[in-house]
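User: Run a structure prediction on this.
Assistant: Running it now.
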Amino acid sequence: MQEISFNEEISFKWIRGDDEEETLEFYGEDGEPLDFTGSRFDCDIVPVSKGERICLSSTSESISVKNNKVTFIISHDKTEQVDWTQAKWDLQQTNGQGLIKTCAEVR
């Protein structure tokens, strides 16, 4: 589990074709845990070179959210056919009022 603040850059090392799970724990500038209750999360993983994008979402259960913890659930079928080795990604929160905020990214 990684503890992060908003807009912090994070890198993951995953093995193609494996089931992977990563949990990020978010805290505000005051050090208090953020509460994401009622929020939707989406993550787009886009290869640096050519290749197919991987989309994760809390609406498809490939992202789970509990309080300040956001977990990516990458099933092996999402990566087993990829031929790229590096990707950029971002994680966006849509709160209960429909406002969108980027929580973390690698560009």
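The CA atoms of residues 10 and 56 lie 16 Å apart.
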